Amino acid sequence: MNRLFAVGDTHGSLELKKLSNKNFPLARELDRSDMLLITGDAGFMWDNTPETRYWDDWAESRNFTIATCFGNHCNYDKLRALPAEEWCGGIVRKVRPHIMYLENGELFNICGRTVFVQGGAASTDRAYRKEGKSWWSAEIPSRHEFEHAAETLEQTNFNVDIILTHTAPNTMINKIDRFFPQYDDVTNFLDKFVFRNTTWKHWWCGHFHIDRSFSDDNFYFLYNDIIELLPDNTIKVVNN
Length: 240
Prior knowledge:
By secondary structure, the chain is an alpha/beta fold. The protein has one domain (about 5-235): Purple Acid Phosphatase, chain A, domain 2. It has helices at about 50-60, 75-80, 145-155, 170-175, 185-195, and strands spanning about 5, 35-40, 65-70, 85, 90-95, 100, 105-110, 115-120, 160-165, 200-205, 210-215, 220, 225-230, 235. The strands form two sheets. An eight-stranded mixed β-sheet has the order 4-5-6-3-2-1-13-14. The chain has a six-stranded mixed β-sheet with strand order 7-8-9-10-12-11. Strand 8 (about 115-120), helix 3 and strand 9 (about 160-165) form a beta-alpha-beta unit.
């Protein structure tokens, strides 16, 4: 079927029920060829508790395949210890056979669309978290990761169908968060290099816990909305 959907942060046991049949009834019609993209902070493999394992298994039981970019609330130690595998043209880390993290700076061909991925963001609640347990410095990509992302875009001649990120470029942050802008190294890179140089049909991000689209920029902040990218390249909200 090769249908393509996207949703905002799911935060593991806290909000994965967004993907339930009750909230997302269309899921009953899908199969493993259909893809749901999560805009980071998915919450998979957060720790070794039975609760986390239960929800990871529950998500794996969904009819569709799930892929997410990295966010800021990710257990980078566990996720980056997973084997690097090639999938749809890029590198992923599989949490379950049909749940995977898309590596930063990679380009994928998903459901016939080119998807450039750049995850990561700075945690504004870092002061209340413990390094190595609930916060990881790898939330900000390394210089090598940014260089790799730049090289990837250059190879596409700065033209892709979809950009999937956790946070947003500064230009778009200014449209929603004028008084307390959350700038960091990722937002700066997205703004100065990606936003200013790249042509895209759709840009989807999460992080800000809002659902808001900017049609002039082909940009969608996602949180609770589950959207489908239709064959005519339009977007439809499909959940309750």
